[in-house]
UniProtKB/TrEMBL annotation:
UniProt record similarity statement: In the C-terminal section; belongs to the OMP decarboxylase family.
Protein EC: 2.4.2.10, 4.1.1.23
Keyword line: Decarboxylase, Glycosyltransferase, Lyase, Multifunctional enzyme, Pyrimidine biosynthesis, Transferase
Known pathway: Pyrimidine metabolism; UMP biosynthesis via de novo pathway; UMP from orotate: step 1/2; Pyrimidine metabolism; UMP biosynthesis via de novo pathway; UMP from orotate: step 2/2
GO MF assignments: orotate phosphoribosyltransferase activity; orotidine-5'-phosphate decarboxylase activity
Pfam families (alphabetical): OMPdecase, Pribosyltran
NCBIfam families: pyrE, pyrF
Domain Orotidine 5'-phosphate decarboxylase: 236-454
InterPro entries: Aldolase_TIM (IPR013785), OMPdecase (IPR014732), OMPdecase_AS (IPR018089), OMPdeCOase_dom (IPR001754), OPRT (IPR023031), Or_phspho_trans_dom (IPR004467), PRTase-like (IPR029057), PRTase_dom (IPR000836)
Source organism (scientific name): Daphnia pulex (Water flea)
Name used for this protein in its record: Uridine 5'-monophosphate synthase
Amino acid sequence: MDELATKLFDIQAVKFGSFTLKGGQVSPIYFDFRLIISYPAILEKVAGLLWKKCAYNANVDLICGVPYTALPIATLISVTNRVPMLLRRKEAKDYGTKKLIEGDFRPGMNCIIVEDVVTTGTSVLETAVELRKLGILVTHAIVLLDRRQGGKENLAKHGIELSAVFHVEEIMASLEKQSKVDHKVAEEVMDFIRGHQQSIVSRNPRLHESLEERRSSSKHPIATRLFELMMAKKSNLCVAADLTSLDEVIKLAESIGPKIVVLKIHVDILEDFSLAKMKQLRKVAKAHEFLIMEDRKFADIANTVQQQFHGGVYKISEWADLITAHPLAGPEMITHLFGDSSSDSRRTCGCVLILEMSTKNALTSQDYSKEAAKWGLIASDIVAGFVGQSPPDADFSGWIQFTPGVNSASKSGDSKGQQYCSPAEAVLERGADIIIVGRGLIKSSDVVATAENYRSEGWTALTKRITNP
Ligand SMILES: O=c1ccn([C@@H]2O[C@H](COP(=O)(O)O)[C@@H](O)[C@H]2O)c(=O)[nH]1
């Protein structure tokens, strides 16, 4: 790595001085990796290191470079490792096939995106969008240099894991160690990078307000209650009790009740459901002060959803404090979810809108969640919060962000598309107010100790986020 950093410096692919960037900022460092093609040995080294970043992934069917600098790099990786390549055009031709993606592929194939520098991740994302339109799966991108300016987090939000050969800190440390730059320049560069590392989370005022302030701006009684419980119990832990027996759920709730603020269930996986047992669970919830969330993911027209909510065997409106709903059917479904304006449920139950899902290749795109968040804001007497992996553009400090896919023991997710992050990452990088932990807790041998660990990690991260904006 030191050798490559030196070579990049020597050929002036890494320059120091004063450079005006695309966004108008003046940067003390500039990376011009287009020069690499003039140095075949360096090009070969770069391609080799990039390939090492994804060779562990047995699922590479194709690679695709982001135009233009990464194209020769991707070509070399393709030829050396015998991995077929795709070519993405920047503009479609106005004659012939008019295709944006050239090459031979089948929908369902896995494609790795290759890039030279990632700042916000937009170029990688644009390439991923075109590939995904054709049914090609994109879950990984490899990059020579990650400037650490939010790209990794942005891509993760879209189900793409970014692996970098270098981070800017590593290049600077290496060049300083080899006396290529002096300490003052290295400091200046790092100050600039840190100053431009504003992630979505650090820009969002909701995430730095105290829970007390947010409690007073909340418009839904259940959101107000949840803020109070969080402060009183010093907990932002929701446990996904995905068990098939309600007796077992009750047993679990009795043991971890003091550590949690929400217990989330899926009523339709219970084999021993009865309203009497539900009453028992409500008693435990009252005694230990936590809310019950039914993760029903309502998604139909309002008329049907109302019946699903109030009727059937489960009579969800009789026992749930919170329910989840997909905003797919439009704003009317949200406003009529609980019934007409006189329905008691509007005050006794809060809707948690699913803006983004935690799984790979989820269809909850940025545009989708942006629109849905706007509807949620309008229906703030119904909507207590949202499920998501990041704060939406239209945000509101009285709303609560619930983030599932939290598991300290597994970084890679399960084998069925679920993706995981740690409690600290969920809170500090993704904006979670409440972390949702399922198998990471219910499968552990000591659920009480594990609940305490998640409570403490989640709460520490939340306190840190509020006190260090
Ligand atoms: O995007 C979503 C929405 C909901 N879930 C639910 O959360 C838990 C996660 O369980 P783990 O065992 O921690 O994977 C589960 O009940 C899902 O239905 C989600 O994972 N992602």
